[in-house]
What we know:
CATH class: Alpha Beta
Order of helices and strands: EHEEEEHEHEHEHEHEHEH
Helix content: 25-40%
Distance between the termini: 14 Å
CATH topology: TIM Barrel
CATH architecture: Alpha-Beta Barrel
Structural class: alpha/beta
Number of domains: 1
Number of strands: 11
Strand order of the largest sheet: 1-2-6-7-8-9-10-11
CATH superfamily: Phosphatidylinositol (PI) phosphodiesterase
Amino acid sequence: MMEIFAHRGAAQAARENTVAAFLAARELGADGVELDVHLSADGVAVVHHDADVPGKGPISDLSVMELPAWLPSLAEALEACRPLRVNIEIKGDPTSATKREDLLVSEVAMAISVHEEPAGIVVSSFSLTAIDALHSYAPGVATALLVEPADDAMAALERSREHGHSGLHPFFLSVDEALMRAARTSAIAVRTWTVDDPGRVVALAELGVDAVITNDVAIALAALGRF
């Protein structure tokens, strides 16, 4: 059965990437939640999509105490998501040094290590070095390479296989029968983003996609006959 992941939580019901959005995704019947992480100035993995917080500035310049109350730490988010599966996207900051990326990866690995359900977590990133590092910190945690729409998904699948990653997260228009055949041959799970059209949800399920990430959990579930 293809899984349905709520993109940044149920963002139609609550502010995205917040505890409220994650709880709402669970209430809607999502199988999982997709969320994004950055590193605060004092070295805490926190959940937010953009590198900056409106009205506050870059997360990398702000301590946890300086962040808005609605912006959760990764630990708080994981607790709110239980028992759902969680896709943690490690966000890249073009202005940050490699050392900060590694610190973020290590913080993510630490948060997962104390979580009660680590088997339900997958860590993804557009940065191959980030998921390579996560794999070294936490070899048992599933990792996946995100693929930009303009990039070659088949080539990305081969890079994932060579680096020992168990997942590929391409843009939904990049998914076709050839990619799915190659993914099955390599035992690589394909979770695609961001799918809001019910017809497309059904088509991807028929192709054998493992999961879709969607902004509208209710519509995706209804498309699959899961009410």
